[in-house]
Structures are given as C-alpha cells and as structure tokens.
What we know:
Elements: E1 14-16, H1 22-55, H2 57-64, E2 67-68, E3 77-78, H3 79-105, H4 111-138, H5 155-165, H6 171-195, H7 202-220, H8 226-243, H9 248-256, H10 280-304, H11 311-319, H12 321-348, E4 351-353, H13 359-368, H14 374-384, H15 389-428
Parallel strand pairs: 1-4
Antiparallel strand pairs: 2-3
Amino acid sequence: MPTSPSGSPQRPTRTLFSALSKGSERNLADTLRDERTGGLLLLAGAVAALLWANLAPDSYRAVSGTVVGPAALHLDLDLAHWAADGLLAIFFFVVGLELKREIVVGELRHVATAALPAAAAVGGMVVPAAIYLVVNTTMAGGAPQGWAVPTATDIAFAVGVLAIVGRGIPVALRAFLLTLAVVDDLLAIVIIAVGFTDTVTIGLLVGSLACVAVFGLALRRGVRTPFLLVPLALASWALLHASGVHATIAGVLLGFTVPALPGSASRGASTTDEHADHSLAERYEHLWRPVSAGFAVPVFALFAAGVTVDLTTIGATFADPVALGVVLGLVLGKPLGITLATVLVARFTRARLAPGLGWWDVVGVGLLGGIGFTVSLLVATLAFGAGSVHDEHAVVGVLAASLLAALVGGAVLSWRGRVHTARTATALRGTPGTDGPPADRDPGATR
C-alpha cells in the first residue's frame, strides 16, 4: 500500500467516471440502441397531445375520458388511466429489468461503483424537492403535496438528447447518466409506492405478491411459455391495482424476478451457444424495450401532456407556485443536486475525476437530469388528480422545464464534446509530452 510522506499508510485514490465493466458496457449499449428512437417518439407523443388538445379540445377530452373495461373487476378505467396504470406498467417492467441487470452485473453490484450514481441520484431528488417545498410553502396558493413532481429524470429524453449532441463525450460519462437515471427511477418507484398509497387491501396485495413469486419461480425452473407467464403477470397487475397500490409497481416487481446472470436465459432448458452469454433479463429487455419506448410511453404522453395552452393559461400557470416550483426544481435543483453530491463524494472519499474530465461535464449531465418527463407527469397526476388546475399547471411546468433543461444541457454537453474531441485529436497527433487527454489544459478539469 502506498505511504504518505510521514510513513503512514495512504488510501489509494479512486477515479470517478473510469472504465466500465463488461456488464455495464452491454447495459449501456442496450439502452442507447433503443432509447434514441424512444426519445423521439416520446417527443412526438407530447407534441401530438398539445396539438390535439388545443385544436380539438372536445375531441381530446372525449377520447381520453372514454371508459373501457369490466366494472366487476374494478377495471372500468378511462383511456387516460389505462395509459398511466396499464401501459406504464410495461415501462416499469423494463425499468425493473434495468435495475436487476445493474445490480447483478452492472455498476450497482459493488458499493464502490454504486456510491457515486446513488449519491448523485439522491442529491438530484432532495434538492429539487426542497426547492419546490420552499416555493410552495412561502407563496400563497402553494400545494406542498406535489414535492415529488420535479424529482424524476426521464431516461428516454435524456439519452435522446445525449445521442444528438454528445458526440465525443466519454463513454463512462454516458454510463453515469444512465445509471443515475436508473437509481432515480428506483427512488421514484419507492415514492409512488409509499407516498401515493392511501389505503391498502392486504388480501389483494398478498395475492399480487403471490402471483409475482410464482412468475419468478416459473422462470427459475425454466418455464418460458407465455400461456403461463402472461396470465400471471396480468393477474399480479390487476390484483395490485385493486389493492390500492399503484399498479405500475407490479411491473417493477416482475422485472426484479427475472434472472440476470449470463447463461440464465437457458437455465432449466436446453443450453444453446446463442444464449450462453446472455441472461434472461437481457433477452426480455431486448424484447420489451421497443414495446415500452415505441408504444407504451408515447401513448402515455399522448394522454398525459394534452393541456390547452393560451396566453391566459400561461400567465396563470407561472403565477401558480406549483408550476414555478416544478420549473425551478428541474432546471436548477437537478444540476445543483447532482453536481453537489458528486463534489461531496470526491471531497470525502478521496475520489477524483478521470483524467480529461472536468466539472462542466458533470454540470452538463446534471442539466440533462432536469428532463423529467414521464415519471414527473405520472407523479403530478397522482399528487393533484388528473385534469385538476394544479395538475394542468404542473404538466405545463414539466414540459417547459424539460425543454429548457434539454436546450441548456445539450448546449453544455455539445461544447464539452467538442473539447474532448479536440483533445483526442491532439493526443493522436503525438503532441510532445502528451500521453493522453491533458486535463490541465481545461479550466474545468480536475487537477
């Protein structure tokens, strides 16, 4: 072990945003491949919702309010609720698979590598929530119950912006954003499950958990037939919905039961070379991510983002502490919380940024963390009630903040990408005395 000048043992310095593990590289590649298109489709769904709600508001309300489903099973929901409670369960199933893979083979499997994104995610939720609460407890007409609205980060949108402007950004920094967003989703799931559940029917909850357990056991035993797995998944969702817990949590629980170790895709069944290096969680993520990113989330956006916008509405919206707290929380709170948490980790754990990276890179990632579309819209609906005045103002706040965060964060990371590209080109040309990206040539880099 290295020693200090006094001769006492010295702890080794840890590098932040260093090389990725093999499992993390595969997780990153899987997410980047599909979420780019998913982000564009999500944007298209939001734009379509705004156009429809403003050009034909009566038609929009009539369609979103159309009730479908059996009343005997407490599933007589309008289409807007089917999108939020049903289709988003697919989105949360994919989130559950992401979490399982990150915990088993990714950056979250070791405390040392999980500490930074976990701390950044916590900072990126606590600071926006605090800003929202300050605004809504000090201004007249505030609604403190919406504190969780500005705490979420939308992976699809953030990755889509990063894919467009992030050419030249180091791979480890991209992985940091994704891992942070996954931990952010986990914390958001806990908030939804605990903070927005008033009453619970224990018998129905136990029944749902039993279906989840049988689903996981079947997978462990090598059962792959959809004729058993799909009914079990639907039963767990329906029972959880009827129990009083938000039904999307069923998707997360089901995702957590899927084996995530390489080779587990064939465990209990015939082993083939094709699946030897792929886990069942990886295969299911390949299968369901396009459904989530390409259909479930855009349709949810279509029914969640449809607010009528005019000059009167805009004036009333940003006079409402709810919208003001959401915008400030996402645009200022997210980058502040993420950056501050990263600085604290570097300060108190002897960790340092990887060579060539600067704090402006971290700020850029933090700004993209302020894109809080999908889960923020869901939480707004849960906190204020769909169609309420506060809900509409929160929706406008989320849309405005996400757009602003994307523009500012995209500009910062585009600049940083050019800086990193120029450094790499200089190093490849063999500049004398250069053995890699020169961290000391950038005022934003850590020495």
